[in-house]
Fold:
Amino acid sequence: MRQPKVIIVGGGLAGLMATIRVAEAGVPVELFSIVPVKRSHSVCAQGGINAAKNQKGEGDTTWRHFDDTIYGGDFLANQPLVKRMCEEAPGIIDLLDRMGVMFNRTPEGLLDYRRFGGTLYHRTAFAGATTGQQLLYALDEQVRRHEAEGKVKKFEGFTFLSAVIDDSGVCRGIAAMDLRSMEVKVFPADAVIFCTGGIGAIFGKSTNSVVCTGSAQSSLFQQGVDYANGEFIQVHPTSIPGEDKLRLMSESARGEGGRVWVPRKPGDSRPANGIPENERFYFLEEWYPKYGNLVPRDIATRAIHRIVYQEKLGLNGQAAVYLDVSHIDREILDRKLEGILEIYEKFCGSDPREEPMKVFPGMHYTMGGIWVNNEDQATNVPGIYAAGECEYQYHGANRLGANSLVSCIFGGGIAGPAAVKYVKNLEKGAESTDASVFDRERKRQEGKNQELISQEGTENPLTIWKEMGEIMTEHVTVTRINKNLEAAHDKLRVLQERFRRVNLSDRTKWSNQTLNFTRELENMLLLARVITLGALARNESRGAHYKPDFPNRDDANWLKTTRAKWCNGEIHLAYEPVDTSLIPPRVRKYDAAK
Amino acid sequence: MTRPSEHAMSEKQVIVRIKRQPGPKQPCHWEEFALKWRPSMNVIICLRDIAENPVTRDGKKTTPVSYESNCLEEVCGSCAMVINGKVKMACSALVDSLEQPIRLEPMTKFPVVRDLAVDRQFMFESLKRVKAWIPIDGTYNLGEGPRMAPEIQERGYPLSRCISCGSCLEVCPQVNEGNKFVGAAIVSQVRLFNMHPTGAMHARERIQALLAPGGIQECANAQNCVAICPKQIPLTESIAEVNREAWKQSLLGWLIG
Structure:
């Protein structure tokens, strides 16, 4: 009998969960990752993971979690899978607990839960302030066990280049590059699950890790895999600005009682601790009395921008506000938030237990991503599945804090079995695909490498990347204005032109990081355009997508999913209805209980 | 701030000397770079500046430096390298706290891939060897995990923050050509899994793995590991505890023949 095989690209939470599920089903898995999977970006998730366990006797239910998620996402998410995710979330916590995650505990030895944005319930399980790291390690350990048993083969240090798609449009494997030998290799598989994470690098500086470029998503898009809701980009309200990256200061700081404020007097130069209580402006608490500091991220981010840019109340006239946990008991801070406070201390040199942190919003997450169906994470190309941040399914127009970890594990958890079912039902597998199909993809990719290595140009890839990041951050994040979006799109096209004259400062054939980065850059430029065009077209404000010229949500015209397609070498925007069959859309506001 | 001092600041330089090696087992050489100083600059920013303009201090064109990095907030463990003679994470190594010229070298206990990038696969293989996991029956729904006293969690959590950066191996005199000591990080993981209520059911297997060559007996108690760990993991405590268990187990094994 034919032995089917599944490839998984990406070893973060979604990829590892999918790997475990496929391995459990007895189907061999090949797992590809740029970095050793234990170093994946999921380690950066800090605050926690949501599940309506109702462990504080507040009457929380999975339906409330579902409603909070849909409402928080401004009704753009298709509802059936979100409902399933919320229903399965408590089981996911149990599973992680069984895997040995060191979740914080109550005196009774049960899991502790804290509050997070966009909900009034204690629904977030956590392991200090490094929950993503702890969850990733638990799944990494399980995958290592399957690897030791010979069920999983890892290809760490490989980057995905393209899917191998046969003449009937079915995916039969992947082309990947060994990042040491720089060799392009093709790997046959009967199904491929993409779990390639975020796209932060498109915005230059973000809270994301270096590998979060969106290159794989863009490459797939150019092979006919649709990309949905790209314009929905989450800017996290509290990050530490830095030149190399924006370091996240978790929402859990506010979940544990942290407060955001600025001095009431513009340009007040007194040290924070010297400003008396009545001269502090706790603007989130004043503007949103019901949710206070725990409004959803899009709301908090816009509020901070308003404080800084309209009210001119930024700290010392600069783009920063205080995030203050200094009033909270030290012992609680160390037990529940140490991981993030340590980051602040190391990178900023002051102790947040003593004085407030200075923070500002930073690009954090993409709600949009690879289009997948409403049942089992399948894309529109047979044999290609997607799960985790790289796909668009669960968060609508704005993701609630601590929902990303659960969506990664849930999505990966259903993509695995779906791929297994698909490969078992295939009449003919990759083994019967003509060798020429693989050869032509390998040659196409080798050709690209050769072209980049040998061409004599004048443009530095890092310079183009920085310029792209500046354009995207300025015009395609918090506030969007059509004429600026048009100008941004024109500039991105100019960058694409300049990219054709790119000059590699490294032409060697061993571990050439410049070559790999340049290839990613080309893909980033295209995905940047998909995002910008989606934003330009959507003339309304919904969740994270805010246009002052169209300040309201417009359900009559825009309660629909953007579905970008690649048609004859151009980006084409199509739209499809949102499945709102379970909760009818209603007005979203956070100054009162919903 | 007055104009002249602003000018002086913009002229301030950062001098970085980097040990370059084009590939495994190839001869290495040093290159020196002069970069423009900026506030809150770290070693990663230095390496990115070089990538954008790969020209040495004496005007020679060169290639960008190969190195590993990912999260840039000291939680992924990628960017460990030897900075001014001491192993550090490049992302949290702030230029202003380093003496210049800043000397960057690859870690010495792992094979060099290129320049500052090394191959730390040995650590992941060691995790396999000691079965550093909880052997769950399956991912299907089997209800909640075991209850755990907060005190156990508070001891376990710091151990579970190990980022596999390899710093503890780098500074360990027992990790050398002639000795395959798995290192403090791995021993500490054994302690972590043996502490967990389910993990404890398989404690013997993990201890057994540490009784083989390269195991716990190789530790000579230099205690460099605990001093260097960027996550302040109580590694020597872990070693002491696992050592006691290992003694018990081997003595018992000897007694019952």
Chain B has nine helices and nine strands. The domain at 121-255 of chain B is CATH 1.10.1060.10 (Fumarate Reductase Iron-sulfur Protein; Chain B, domain 2). Residues 1-7 of chain B have pLDDT under 50 and may be disordered. Chain B touches chain A through 68 residues (CB under 8 Å).
